[in-house]
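Many introductory courses stop at the sequence. We go one step further.
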Amino acid sequence: MEIELVQLAAGVVSSLIFAASNVPMLAQAAKTKNLKSYSLAQIALSNVGNLVYWVYVVSLPLGPVWFLQAFYTLTMAVMLVLYLHFETCLSWLRALTRQAYATCRV
């Protein structure tokens, strides 16, 4: 019984460490609104990978891996939304601004 408690504690602690390592990425992306260092393909594949990995996770008993996978899924979903919002909207706005500027110069 004692070994299971040690394993559970290790799972909880490592899950918290892994989750905490993603918080600065999210905070910086939200603060700077600059996601140029990420690619849409990488973020999309991470989201697909998380969804596929859930097929495995649901076969496991409820434990730290559930919370870690939920956090990873939520984190990558937020990154996808931020990427689509900031990179797509900002690039569209930049193109529109360039077009308006060029039109005004004529």
